Amino acid sequence: MPAVLIVDDDPEFRQRASRVLADRGYDARPDAVLLDVNLPDGDGLTFAQELADADGAVRVLLTSSDAGAAPRRLVERSGAAGFVAKVDLAVADLTPYLG
Fold first, then answer.
1. In three state form, how does the secondary structure of 43-93 look?
2. How far apart are CA 39 and CA 70, in angstroms?
3. Which DSSP symbol is given to 3?
4. Phi, psi (5° rounding) for residue 5?
5. What is the chain's pLDDT, residue by residue, as a tens digit (99 residues)?
6. 7-23: buried (b, 16+ CB within 10 Å) or exposed (e) per residue?
7. Are 61 and 89 in contact (CB under 8 A)?
8. What is the radius of gyration, based on Cα positions, of the chain?
9. Is 33 strand, coil or helix?
10. Torsions phi, psi for 24 (to 5 deg)
11. H/E segment holding residue 24
12. Is 36 helix (H, G, I), strand (E, B) or coil?
């Protein structure tokens, strides 16, 4: 059964949604999240930190159109498992990051 990532600021709702999904056979705890650093309505780095704080078992792999060194340094600040530039995604080996 697929894993479902629940993104909501209400912890009560997250717990309830997680139970409902689990009752239906879904896994509400994904193993990994591929996350853009620059989101139009939020900050991917902040979200990565929140994911790490909420559940350290979820591996976050950051991605960005900016392939320079700056985004790679942000990985250290965010607690993410790694960084892959969007242009490299087709050829990148994600296994070291995702297990």
1. EHHHHHHHHHHHCCCCEEEEEECCCCHHHHHHHHHHCCCEEEEHHHCCCCC
2. 16
3. B
4. -90, 120
5. 678 888 777 888 888 988 898 898 888 778 888 888 888 887 888 888 888 777 677 888 888 877 666 666 777 778 888 888 887 776 666 777 766
6. eeeeeeeeeebbeebee
7. no
8. 14
9. strand
10. -100, 5
11. none
12. strand
pTM of the model: 0.72
Which residue type sits at 34?
A: L
Q: DSSP 3-state assignment of 26?
A: coil
One-letter amino acid identity for 83? F
**Residue 48 in tokens:** 């990565």
Residue/partner pairs of 95-98 with CB below 8 Å, 24 or more apart? 97/32, 97/59, 97/61, 98/31, 98/32, 98/59, 98/61
CA 56 to chain CA centroid, nearest Å: 11
Give the sign of the dihedral formed by CA 79, CA 91, CA 38, CA 98: negative
